[in-house]
Amino acid sequence: MYEAQEARVTASGRVLLAGVSLALRPGAVTVLVGPNGAGKSTLLKALSGEQRLAGGRVRLDGADIHAMAPAALARRRAVLPQAAEVAFAFSVAEVVAVGLMGGAPGGAQAASRIDRLLRRVDLSGFAERRYDSLSGGERQRVQLARVLAQLECGEAAKPAYLFLDEPTASLDLAHQLTVLRLARAHADAGGGVLAVLHDLNLAAMVADRMVVLAHGGIVAEGPAAEVLTDDVLHRAFGVKVRVGVAPPGPFVLPQNVLPA
Amino acid sequence: MSAEPLSLPTAARPAVAGLSLLAALAVAAFLGALAIGPFAIGPGRVLAVLWDAASGVPAGSGLLRERIIIMDVRLPRAVLGALVGAGTAVAGAMMQGVFRNALADPGLVGVAPGAALAAVAWVVFGGVLGALLPQSVQLLGLPLAAFLGGLATTLLIGRLATRDGRTSVATLLFAGLALGALASAGTGVMVFMASEQQTREFLFWTLGSLGGATWIKVGLAAPFIIALVVASPWLARGLDALALGEAEAFHVGIPVERLKRLAIIGVAAGVGASVAAAGVVGFIGLVVPHLARLALGPAHRVLLPASALLGAAVLLGADILARMLAAPAELPLGVVTALVGAPFFLWLLLRRRAFVG
Questions:
Q1: Which regions span the lipid bilayer (chain B) (predicted)?
Q2: Chain B, 101-120: which have a CB under 8 Å from a chain A CB?
Q3: For residue B36, how many other CB atoms are within 10 A of its CB?
Q4: Run of H or E including B291
Q5: For residue A108, which residues of chain B lie inside 8 Å, CB to CB?
Q6: Which of chain A's termini has less CB crowding within 10 Å, N or C?
Q7: Which residues of A are less than 8 Å from B298 in CB distance?
Q8: What is the ipTM, given to two decimal places?
Q9: Which residue in chain A is spatially nearest to B97 when comparing CA positions?
């Protein structure tokens, strides 16, 4: 269990996260949705350990993650960043190798492993390309391959947690689905997933549990069908929507912005 | 070793070949530094003298003159040159890794001038304290002072250029430029107040030279630089991860703050020892890592040793030119490295404007 307990984050006097409690369970995909500035990325950063807390705790199987060594934490959770620039002209294989946690990146075994990971994100044959020559969507998938490499290097006996910060932002439709399918597969294999998503329809499709965040607090949480209601979305996004159900799941049609 | 190449993956082969080539280049430059000079000594004779000296043959008849020139003059100079080149280049590669930018050269951003200022301060005030301190402390104080000067400057630069965890490259360069100019001015003030050979001393500290190479200088610089070069591969994975971003490096398990601290201590050690031994030799820390990246890629596991080898070769080559171009006078080493390095730096800026955004 990976959980935030009353996690509070402030930045220069502003409250970004007002004591949020959230538990991620192995085997489940949890999706964070909410308007811009709701604190989604901040919550993800607080959970990953990147963001220091002004109050509360983040625990992994009971242990405070800020008391864990970065390497030990990295064996239990991996993070796909939102925008990833790489300094210097690294090759795709070298970027993926960073995820191989000290497993010799020069070894023949590592090379075939990297090829296999690149195939999983639909980037076969990209190993020797320069990362900085790729498109935004390709870069995103290279980073995903790196994150998958890290998950493979984790502790086999304990569930690993995968954090995705807007993983579909720069991807085309087919590759959005690839990413979500990989996230789903990770959960089905016993890992935990937390994803920040903007597209409510994609969110509804992949989420076992949805968490709606607004103004640094949780507005609603539960299965997508229970959370995605006209009322909740109105309160969180300030947009008048009507949630319909086209078999087999809910979908959302925005109508117009609510006058302030 | 014979079975080794079979087990190497394709990606590692160019790295091994490249490092071997650079090692050969460094050896060639080293032998060149021993052979070339006002009194030319053929490569065969150089090797013969080295062999005689190494196998303990008493300095006798035939090659006496060559042996004195090589063992007492050129060998300490070449060893010091190799050390200074390797230390400066590895420090450059490491600092660029920490600041995630190819322009973060310790010479360019004021670290080397800061080290020189501290070294000069030690020379001036250490002389005053001379009666109180044993000679060994006085000697060791010089590289230590330069190390601390370099460390202080690096920390100051980092502090000035980093706000809310983000390092501004423009601020890094401008603040570094200002600090470097200030440190050089301070060096000038002290040299001209305290020394009888002001101009020569000042040129040594600001433009560098291997002219005063002695085995004592070699002995003082070697521990710092060898420690840096040998230890640097342990930071390679962390520096690679850091290229992806500080948050990303933390996510893959790198203790980022500790990595940065260690790397900055390494930079200060390499720069401090080099500056204490040979003054500020510009552009080596900028040009050498960049060439190594172009040839062998940016992965630090290869880049750091490659920079050490290429740095040694380039500095020895520059010293040969410094001795030959205006013979029998000697050019300051920094004049030669600037002749080559400054145009290269401009080319780099024009080619990659994005570096300074």
A1: 21-41, 78-99, 111-133, 140-161, 173-194, 215-236, 262-291, 303-325, 331-350
A2: 101-102
A3: 18
A4: helix B284-296
A5: 7-9
A6: C
A7: 88-90, 94
A8: 0.91
A9: A87
Closest residue, chain A, to B14 (C-alpha) = A106
Nearest Cα residue to A166 out of A205, A140, A188:
A140
pTM of the model: 0.88
**What is the C-alpha separation between B253 and B264, in angstroms, rounded?**
20
Beta bridge partner(s), residue A227? none
- A102: confidence class by pLDDT, cuts 50, 70, 90: low
Considering only CB atoms, which chain B residues are within 8 Å of A153? none
Chain A residues within 8 A of B236 when measuring between CB atoms: none
Query: Which one of B163, B167, B252 makes the best mutation probe of the A interface by having the most chain A beta carbons within 10 Å?
Result: B252
| Nearest-angstrom CA–CA distance, A248 and A253 | 16
Q: Is residue A10 part of a domain?
A: no
pLDDT in tens, A60-94: 999 999 999 999 999 999 999 876 789 999 999 99
How many CB contacts within 8 angstroms connect chain A with chain B? Answer: 95
Q: In this structure, is residue A195 part of a structural domain? A: no
pLDDT, tens digit, for every residue of B64-119?
Answer: 888 888 888 999 999 999 999 999 999 999 999 998 888 888 988 889 999 999 98
- Quick check: B89 and B288 in contact, CB under 8 A? yes
**DSSP conformation class of B209:** -
Asked if residue A237 belongs to a domain, the reply is no
Nearest to B240 among A79, A98, A111 (CB): A98
In order of start, what are the domains of chain B with their CATH numbers? 93-281 (1.10.3470.10)
Q: How far is B335 from chain A (nearest CA, A)?
A: 29
Low-confidence ranges of chain B (pLDDT < 50): 1-10, 355-357
Residue of chain A nearest B240, judged by CA positions: A98
Q: How many domains, chain A?
A: 1
Q: Is residue A130 part of a domain?
A: yes
